[in-house]
Amino acid sequence: MTKTLPDDLRADVQTLWDYHDMHHELRPTDVGIGLGSHDLGVATYTAELFHAGMFPLIVFTGANAPTTVERFPRGEAVHYREHALDLDVPDDAILIEPEARNTGDNITLTRKLLESRGVEVGSVVLISRPYQQRRAYATCKKLWPEIDVICASRPLPLDDYVGSIGDVERVINMLVGDTQRITVYAERGFAIQQKVPNNVTNAYDRLVQEGFAERLI
C-alpha cells in the first residue's frame, strides 16, 4: 500500500482533484449534511463548521458500502454522530439518516427526514470527501433543485489528504471513479450535466490506462 503520491502520476491526479473541488465560498446555511463514507474527516469538518456557526443543525447520512462496513460496522451515520459528540457537538443538534447507500439516497432520504421533523430548509452545506464535491452537487441539484447548496470538504492539499487516508491507490481509484460518474450519472438521469474539460478527460484516460479502474462502473 503506497502512502505517497508517485511523481509520474502527480499532475493527472492533481487535475482530477482540482476539478472535483467546487471552490464554493462558505456562508451560514440552515443545515449541514455530512455525507457518509470511509473518511471520518467528513464528520470532523462538519463538527468544525457547526462550532463556527455555519449551521444550527447537522444531518449525518449513510448506511454502509463495501468500502466502509469494516471500519464503521454500525453504519457511517452512526459512527459520524459518535465522533461529532466526541468533538462537543450537542446531541440535540444532530439527526442521523442511517439507510442511504448512495449519494442519491443521501439527498432523498435526508430531505424526507427533515420534512418529517418539520424543519424548513432553504439552504444546506454538503460536507463530503474532497473528490465527492462535484458529484454531490450535481446529484443534489437534480433531486432537490430548489435548495441553495454549498459544497465543502476539509481544506487539505492533495498530499496532505493522501497522507491522512494512508492509501494512494484508494484515493486515485476513487478520484477516477467519481470522474466517470459525473458523465454516466447525468446520462442516467441521476444528476445534472456538468462540463468535463479536455484536460480532465485526458488525465482520467491516462489514469485508467495505468490501471486505476477499481471504481469504474
TrEMBL record:
Question: Domain DUF218, which positions?
Answer: 42-150
- Quote the CDD domains the UniProt record gives: YdcF-like (cd06259)
The entry's cellular-component GO terms read: plasma membrane
PANTHER family, alphabetically?
Answer: DUF218 DOMAIN-CONTAINING PROTEIN (PTHR30336:SF20), INNER MEMBRANE PROTEIN, PROBABLE PERMEASE (PTHR30336)
Q: What is this protein called?
A: DUF218 domain-containing protein
**Naturally occurring in which organism (per UniProt):** Amycolatopsis orientalis (Nocardia orientalis)
